[in-house]
Amino acid sequence: xxxxxxxxxxxxxxxxxxxxxxxxxxxxxxxxxxxxxxxxxxxxxxxxxxxxxxxxxxxxxxxxxxxxxxxxxxxxxxxxxxxxxxxxxxxxxxxxxxxxxxxxxxxxxxxxxxxxxxxxxxxxxxxxxxxxxxxxxxxxxxxxxxxxxxxxxxxxxxxxxxxxxxxxxxxxxxxxxxxxxxxxxxxxxxxxxxxxxxxxxxxxxxxxxxxxxxxxxxxxxxxxxxxxxxxxxxxxxxxxxxxxxxxxxxxxxxxxxxxxxxxxxxxxxxxxxxxxxxxxxxxxxxxxxxxxxxxxxxxxxxxxxxxxxxxxxxxxxxxxxxxxxxxxxxxxxxxxxxxxxxxxxxxxxxxxxxxxxxxxxxxxxxxxxxxxxxxxxxxxxxxxxxxxxxxxxxxxxxxxxxxxxxxxxxxxxxxxxxxxxxxxxxxxxxxxxxxxxxxxxxxxxxxxxxxxxxxxxxxxxxxxxxxxxxxxxxxxxxxxxxxxxxxxxxxxxxxxxxxxxxxxxxxxxxxxxxxxxxxxxxxxxxxxxxxxxxxxxxxxxxxxxxxxxxxxxxxxxxxxxxxxxxxxxxxxxxxxxxxxxxxxxxxxxxxxxxxxxxxxxxxxxxxxxxxxxxxxxxxxxxxxxxxxxxxxxxxxxxxxxxxxxxxxxxxxxxxxxxxxxxxxxxxxxxxxxxxxxxxxxxxxxxxxxxxxxxxxxxxxxxxxxxxxxxxxxxxxxxxxxxxxxxxxxxxxxxxxxxxxxxxxxxxxxxxxxxxxxxxxxxxxxxxxxxxxxxxxxxxxxxxxxxxxxxxxxxxxxxxxxxxxxxxxxxxxxxxxxxxxxxxx
Length: 824
Ligand code: ADP
Ligand code: MG
Prior knowledge:
Bound molecules: adenosine-5'-diphosphate, magnesium ion
Structural class: alpha/beta
Distance between the termini: 163 Å
Number of strands: 15
Helix content: 55-70%
């Protein structure tokens, strides 16, 4: 700015002043020539002024035109004067010289006025409104910024205060709302700030443009100064030339001519500079226009600023209000707080009072406790001493306790050993006792079971019941045979009302014996249809001895499982016409042989007889099923066949005592014998006769064996039949035998019933004392031959007479047995 305001120092242009002085000093100037230069000198800017500048370009131009015309009109008379005086042009007052001087003066004036005009324009353009506006805006900006900072600080303060005071209070929500509002306002203020900064930027841009315009103006002025410099140089040269011409009077004319020529050149230059001046003025006018636009823009930004200020004022008012609310809230909070403090204080005082009272109580307690404490302290010290010695005591105690425990363990283990020994002894004793019991009951027991009257028995006198029982003695059975009552005594008699379980009660002890390692034989004896199969097998709903025996066997084995490991195997066979067949084998038709064990133990075995190991009653049932199927496929009339054959189920129980390793083997033979009816009497022939003969033979062999066993004869005829031979090891020694004699109750069967009961009683009675046994045995054998073998040739009436129920013997054989039992 400063350089652009440079002004023209007219006093520093010696050439022009010099010219002026030369003119005045040489000769007195004519009145017409004088006023022209004098006027511009006295008033250098005759046509300029603020008023004129603002009128615009339109008026400037004519003003310039006037000026030019003024110059010309001032120059023209002078030129005419010069021409008139051209004769004496070389002298100091020559017209040519005067003319030149005037022209130079004019030019100088014009130059000065233009320079001043330029400087004035410059000062008006650059230094005034725009700059002021900009400065003002900058100041305003600064003020707004400060105000914002202050607002922010206040906000911060407000934010800090209620936050601390209202934590957790009921006004905190309102406070938060206010805070939100505040932050909103802050956001708006930030937006306004942005707008302000944009305006600043705009102002800056305009300032830059202004600076650019100034620069351009400066350049123009510099150009003009150069031009001026050049012109003044030429003027000086002209003066010098004139002076030198004056000094050389002869060629002066010529020189003047030259000057005239040069003067025309100067004119041309002048016109050029005028054109340039014109151009510059146009540019200035353009700049003015730009300036005007800028002013308008500035005006609009002022308006915007005013709007922003109004907004800020509004925000400030809102802030003020929020601040006021906040203060109110803080006030109320403060009051709440004070109130709460007062309440708390009052409560604390009450509590304090209570505590003080407690303290007083505690103090008195303490006073009373002190002596107790003293004794406690003494006790404690004593205990401490004891505790110090405790580890030693403990060690000793532990040592002694360990020793005691060791001793106790030893005692316990020896006790255990003793107990185990005793247990085993007891076990043996129990076995012995059980065995003794069974033996006392009789190793061979005979029971009778009378079946109920069935539909198959038909109706009429033949189907009437011929069997009665003694209500006071369950071993007595009465039979009405051909109108005569006959009584028999057996080990037990079961009436038709007896259930399968009742019958099985008699078997239970034998199962225990079998598990203990004894061999057991259970026979069902009787005429066909008397109920042998029913008693042995039973029905699926009401199983017989076979099923129940096995169930008991399994349950007892299970009970002993902790001490004994048992294996149970099952075989099933039948003997028909003295041929042994395997019912569980693949080829039931195959006849099996009974052989002596090659190990020399005297034991018998049947090579090829199938043995199934069974784990449960289900397994047994499967085995029965299989055996039954085999029998059904083999024989067309199974009922017929089964009544003519002996069916055997052989169960072997092998046990190992887990603690002693002792091994036991017991065999349970369940035999459903062939029908005992005497077919021979009805005159059977052929195969039927053969069957009868075989059945008779085997049944009498069984009677013989049992008799021999009971009478403890040295020779027992086991080999007389397949049945006795097969059951040899189960009948001899300490084996147990139960004979179930099945009886039909109806009238038509009384002879067979009589026969069966006689057989049963005789079997039972052989057990009586050795003398009578022998005597009984003798008579029985002969009787059996008579009775069993009707086809035999030598009947023995004596024996029959002895056993005849109608013999008139009122004393029952059982009474003799009862007498002798203790010695047995
Ligand atoms: P066996 O085998 O001696 O030829 P069964 O056992 O086949 O005779 O019996 C012949 C019939 O008598 C069968 O129908 C059987 O159900 C029936 N029976 C046998 N004993 C009894 C009894 N104690 N209770 C009911 N019915 C019986
Ligand atoms: Mg049968």
